[in-house]
Amino acid sequence: MTLQSRAPFLRLGTRGSPLALAQAHEVQARLAALHGVDAEAIEIVVISTSGDRIQDRPLSEVGGKGLFTKEIEIALEEGVIDAGVHSGKDVATRLPEGLELVAFLEREDIRDAFLSLTHGALADMPEGARLGTSSLRRAAQIRHRRPDLDIVGFRGNVQTRLQKLREGVADGTLLALAGLNRLDQRSQVTEILDPELFPPAPAQGAIGLEIRAEDTRTRGLVAPLDHAETTIAVRAERAFLRELDGSCRTPIAARSTLGNGQLTIFGQLLTPDGREIVEGEKTGPAGEADALGQALGAMLIARAGPDFIKRFAG
Ligand SMILES: NCc1[nH]cc(CCC(=O)O)c1CC(=O)O
Question: Which pathway does it serve (predicted)?
Answer without folding.
Answer: Porphyrin-containing compound metabolism; protoporphyrin-IX biosynthesis; coproporphyrinogen-III from 5-aminolevulinate: step 2/4
